[in-house]
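User: Please predict the structure of the protein below. I'd like the answer in structure-token form so I can feed it into my own downstream comparison script.

Assistant: Understood. Taking the following sequence of 368 residues as input:
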Amino acid sequence: MGDAGLFRPAVAELRPYQPGKPVEDVQRELGLERIVKLASNEGPFPPFPAALEAMERAALELNRYPDGGAYRLHDALAARHGVAFEEVCAGAGADGCLDMLSQATLDPGDQIACCWPSFPSYLIYAQKQGAEAVTVPLRDNRYDLDGLLAAIGPRTKLVYVCHPNNPTGTMNTRDELDRFFEQVPEHVLVVVDQAYFEYIDRPDYPDAVEAYFKAGRRVAVLRTFSKIYGLAGLRVGYAVAPRDVCAAMAKTRRPFDVTSPAQAAALASIGDADEIAGRRALNAEGLVRLAGTLREHGLEPAPGAVGNFLYVEIGADAARLYDALLHEGVIVRPLAGFGAPTAIRVSVGTPAENAFFGEALGRTLARA
């Protein structure tokens, strides 16, 4: 049997997610003294002190497998959100939850719907199952909820709302989402991806757990510890969803998928409201300064960004600007894999990192 018979057609057609380039690789390849990574929307600050202490304790027992059911983490998250234990499902990042959800629901011929450009995993995990991804263009860089409703058909199982949208950083208001949920057919599960939830402090931005899940809507809400909590390297996130959805997701989870240090660090991070508020404020300041830096150099970021990143249309192949900045020691994200080949995404770093980016951008554009 040749290779053509060995691999599933759905896998042969996949274009895997392209992660940001590691700092160490760039330094080695280009011989640069300093690298600033603003490509992957990571929080620029380390884990909370309590999380670091919890990881140190967990490290003493790394010869043991983790708790496969992540019992204490599930229990704490359920208490945090005021939901039942059976209505929480932890995974290896919110992305791991997306994978479990896709495996649990999608067969060949099924459909998912989302707007585009958006988070590539929605499409990748659907295609991996042999399902079809129906994409709706963004409207003014925001999710077109009316267009998304129109795209739903009898084969649609999952509808994604990236909130705020990655890579544009934009959001839909509570009123818009209320109207959307009033019209979604009952056979569809809506997945509201709120990976950047903790960065946003606006009255018109809804907590989808409180506003929709607790109101009885057929919805799965995704959250992560990878962003403001500073635990991206550990990979831990979760879904709040109906019991039957969480039970089906758990059936597809790999044994011991969430490691002991990840469980311990996430558990220790829950409830530190002061630390989150401080980081939220620093991010808000950084977002304003980063937008100002881009405008000073003639680049206009998409308006209305509420996460920890900005989306910028370049008007040409963004890979060239990405490469030029790379040689200056700054890693940004070119967005061809997100469906936007003429745009870049820049994450908010520390004040010093943001300043370094501004200097590098100035030198790059001056040469151009």
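That's the full token string. Residues 273-296 form the longest helix (24 residues).
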